[in-house]
Amino acid sequence: MPDWLPAGLWGLLAGSALLIGAALGYFLHVPRRMIAAIVAFGSGVLTSALSFELMDEAYERGGFVSTGIGFLAGGAMYTLANWLLCRYGAKHRKRSGGHQPAEHEHQGSGMAIAVGALLDGIPESIVIGLSLLQGGAVGWVAVTAVFLSNLPEGLSSAAGMKQAGRSRTYIFGVWGGIAAMSGLAAIVGFTVFKGFPAGVVAGTTAVAAGAIMAMLVDTMIPEAFAEAHDLAGLVTVLGFLISFILSKSVE
User: Fold this and answer.
1) pLDDT per residue over 186-196, tens digit each?
2) What CA–CA distance (Å, rounded) separates 229 from 37?
3) What is the rounded distance in angstroms from the CA atom of residue 115 to the CA atom of residue 105?
4) Minimal CA–CA distance to 38: which of 125, 155, 159?
């Protein structure tokens, strides 16, 4: 078996949660408040994972300098890309209510939303590939965290896409394509950085962590708070705690 294949399969597994979530959001009538609570839970899970898995690992490999620079760079790159996409109609791509524009309301918004969803998912998948560089065993905590956070992302966004009048072909084409790209991104994370020094791998991990943090604040947390209101904080804490327990259980 090629050494890159497990990375692709783990990335595909984590990305498949987007497709599962999209199916739930499209075919089931899930109350928006419940969707927001699930998004809050996923936000807590991912926040814990990037704190205790990604940043910790980046620091141990490369120290403060590469970790700090990478973290800021990742946040800055994501923020710039997200700002550009928002101008083309992708601002509310994670919202489950009537916030996403229909194509006739904002020309080109369908493509912008698709690219934005891809932008949100790629850093997480690259991290899965990087986790295999630790010695050949996948960082299952990272995979679990990404899976648990992808599920509400797909659920919330697909519900919003359906409400905006997007076709079934578009919705499942977007999330199916991103699930496949998640596997490819994990392969890239493993193969491209396999021979690089520890400092470069650390910086790249920190870049992914910074992008994930910016994504959480820009897209997931606003959806959670807008609909779940006073419950959002508590559910986020619960997600953080569960991910923290998973992280410490493998030490």
Assistant:
1) 999 889 888 88
2) 9
3) 18
4) 155
Task: Give, in order, the Cα–Cα distances in Å from 63 to each of 59, 73, 111, 198.
Answer: 4, 16, 39, 10
CB 235 within 8 A of CB 44: yes
Residue type, 112: A
Tokens 């807008």 correspond to 226
Retrieve residue 71's tokens.
Answer: 């973290």
Range 122-150 average pLDDT: 77
Please tell me the distance from the alpha carbon of residue 84 to that of residue 115, in angstroms, as a whole number: 11
**Cα–Cα dist 51/67, whole Å:** 12
Q: Both tokens of residue 128?
A: 């899965």
| CA–CA dist 25, 35 (Å, integer) | 9
Q: How confident is the model at residue 202 (pLDDT cuts 50, 70, 90)?
A: confident
Give percent of the chain above pLDDT 90.
29
3-class secondary structure for the chain? CCCCHHHHHHHHHHHHHHHHHHHHHHHCCCCHHHHHHHHHHHHHHHHHHHHHHHHHHHHHHHHHHHHHHHHHHHHHHHHHHHHHHHCCCCCCCCCCCCCCCCCCCCCCHHHHHHHHHHHHHHHHHHHHHHHHHHCCCCCHHHHHHHHHHHHHHHHHHHHHHHHCCCCHHHHHHHHHHHHHHHHHHHHHHHHCCCCCCHHHHHHHHHHHHHHHHHHHHHHHHHHHHHHHHHHHHHHHHHHHHHHHHHHHHCC
Identify the CA nearest to 210 among candidates 114, 68, 42, 56.
68
CB 152 within 8 A of CB 38: yes
Tokens encoding 160 = 């919003």
